[in-house]
């Protein structure tokens, strides 16, 4: 075990916080001495100050990871599984603290933050199993039409990898990358979002305490320009796994092209939920509201476009408006609160801007549209109907609790309307006709389709989308493969 280093900590409500960078097995200040103020979106108050790294810190972290990789790459899958399980146990032990920090920093209701922590645990446990499996399946013989030769395919770790994550599901998006990267045998430099580093640093301190060899896991907090860009550019980084906006993802890919490193991208979405006339309306209302207002709509997978059969459109909209009116918006720590604030002032302003544009573009506002009075970035659930297909609110990712509704006249119309998007992350189909549900799911350009189901995501499955929503897939064996190289070894049988 490497000894955990003590570092200066802020505290929130008596909870000591980690606020430094973690490089080569030590907590340390940023080379340039800069700091970032971290806010509570419910109160707009400063929660803490976190060290803000720069290209020098990224370089130190990448070099430490490169040194550690030399021996880490040769550890057995079961040895790596041991660390992954230790992380899952550590997260379990600090469940409530992680959830609390996430609600304070991101603004999501405590119940939602607890769900995220459960996802993190499940992800580390799942990749522990896959890591163990590598001891058996990491190398396999392939049948070839040449009896005198033997061909082996080996899966090897990609190398030093940079993980860049956003603020909407900070710990979950980190776990989806960190667990498979460590399972594969990669050494990691993690760059959390500059908006929500507090739960990430708490997760990092759990990882740091699980005894990984120094340098295998490093964290550099800071801005995208100061830390994310140099990480994507660093010549010793073999691969960048990025989750964030489509525009920044494109920049990361262009940067990575200079050193021809691999990239995986999980980007934005503008997904549809299709409600057929035979749908159970109670279920449809639950699924639409969940898909649009969970995490205050700040979900890449938000099904923020509703396509509803014209014959039930009025009935559905009436019930959705009622649900929106009854949604309790407020302090994420109060019991009964269903929606917290947006996570940052920038996001709050962006959503206000989209709501104003929606009105200008001719969409009819049914409910919401106004920010709530007082401190905090609170926005009420907002519903637009009769939304023009060429409007920005129909076509662009808003990333807030804004739902846009249109009607359709046939199954094919619904499929065409859903697929008419530059994105293709997810979709939901609500129908009591099982055959139709499957037929429509098959026809949708989306990486995940839920039929009559809420947005459940199991680590055993897959995550990612079509078109401008993703490049590659996370979760399941696909998530592990993203951090592996493939080597073929061909030899002459019987030693030649
Ligand atoms: P963002 O693109 O602004 O930032 C994401 C991360 O990239 C942050 O850590 C940021 O500091 C960093 N970054 C910024 N500029 C960079 C640069 N030039 N080079 C390298 N890194 C840079 O996204 P955000 O606002 O944090 O998150 C919201 C977006 O994330 C939404 O578009 C959402 O759809 C997307 N998202 C996608 C998924 C998915 O699985 N597809 C999941 C969650 C969020």
Automatic annotation (TrEMBL):
Entry-linked Pfam families: Aldedh
Keyword presence, Oxidoreductase: yes
GO terms, molecular function: aldehyde dehydrogenase (NAD+) activity
InterPro entries reported for this sequence: Ald_DH/histidinol_DH, Ald_DH_C, Ald_DH_CS_CYS, Ald_DH_N, Aldehyde_DH_dom
Keywords of this entry: Oxidoreductase
UniProt keyword annotation of NADP present: no
EC number(s) per entry: 1.2.1.3
Domain Aldehyde dehydrogenase stretches: 32-489
Top EC class of this enzyme: oxidoreductase
Domain of life: Bacteria
Bilayer-spanning residue ranges: none
Catalytic reaction(s) noted: an aldehyde + NAD(+) + H2O = a carboxylate + NADH + 2 H(+)
Record-stated family: Belongs to the aldehyde dehydrogenase family.
Matching PANTHER family: ALDEHYDE DEHYDROGENASE, ALDEHYDE DEHYDROGENASE-RELATED
Protein name stated in the entry: aldehyde dehydrogenase (NAD(+))
Species of origin: Paraburkholderia polaris
